[in-house]
Structures are given as C-alpha cells and as structure tokens.
Amino acid sequence: MTDSTREQVVIYLHGFLSSPQSVKAQQTKAFVEKYYPDLIFYIPQLDNHPKPAAKALDELIAQHPNADFGFIGSSMGGYFSSYLLERYGGKAVLINPAVQPYNLLADYLGEHVNPYTKQKFSLDESHTRDLTRFDTKSLASPQNYWVLLQTADETLDYRQAEEKYIGAKLTIEEGGDHSFQGYERFLKDIFQFLLHD
C-alpha cells in the first residue's frame, strides 16, 4: 500500500467516569459528520478498568493495519492517547490530560456509578497498579502532540502536563476548568493538526 492509499483513523478517548455521550465527544462527532464524513472515526466506550480498556483499544487499532492514526484524548483519555501514540505512532491532541492518574485514583478507590452509562463498578489498588503499565515515561516524537490546557483545571495540575509534554505544541489558557471551556473553538485546528503534515 502506498502512503496515498493509507487509511486515516481518528479515535476520541473520553475521560474517567465519562462516555461517548459527553459534551466534547458529541461536539467532535458532530464536527466530523459535517466536515469529514468519510473519515474513519471512533468514540469507544472505555472500560472503567485500565487493562480491559487498553486491550480493547489495541484490538480496535489492529483492525486497521495500514492506517495513520490520530488520537484525541480528554483527561484519562489523554493518558491512554499518549500510550497509543508511543506504541503505534501517529499524532495526538490532548485536552487537560492526566499525567499520573494512578496517583489520583488513590482518592477514588471503592464503589462508583458512571453518570452516563449508570454502570456500577469498583476500583481497588490493583487497578491503580495496572494503570502504571500504560505510562509513557518519555516521548519519542513530542512534535506529534498538541496539548490544550486550562490553568483553572480543578482536577489536575496543568503544570504536570506542561512539564511532561515539553517540546510539544502547547496551548495554555488562563482560567477555564477540567472540561476545557470552549473546546469547540479548536475543532477545525485539531483536525488540521491530526490529518495534515
């Protein structure tokens, strides 16, 4: 297969306790349907536990052996997007990404209900240990990342991502919140970054 015939695949990865029905996921879906109707685009429902989530993503990517991948990841989805980019190549746009979510999840051990899917699940220390397996200690090609951060993120310290993704394209906005206020403003540029050199 020549480069000109390679598939282009974009995968949107939602965050912890989120779903494909989240506001940003649906904004992205609507944008793709309007402007890139022929693009292969996925918003998978990620398992609440890290190992099956990663396994499902590996299986999804294996369905496209001759593809160039783009990843859009919010929060925990940003963490997994980094793992996938370092493993399979491509480009990624990360929105307020989790850098060390295994430390954060220590505060979330116990029973949960996903507010979108209503699925009940439990987290224990084995899940936080599993999460460390998907950490990307170093970035082979930081220029293939674009990281969108807002300084008033109430869940994550944006400075962790600013430090980790040094050498990447960084957009840091004052204020905002963990959901990244005004995300839809960036959709046109996000897909330009992911799909074009």
Automatic annotation (TrEMBL):
Q: Transmembrane segments in this chain: where?
A: none
Q: What is this protein called?
A: Esterase YqiA
Gene3D superfamilies according to UniProt: alpha/beta hydrolase
The record's annotation in PANTHER family points to:
ESTERASE YQIA, ESTERASE YQIA-RELATED
Top-level taxon of the source organism:
Bacteria
| Pfam families (alphabetical) | UPF0227 (PF05728)
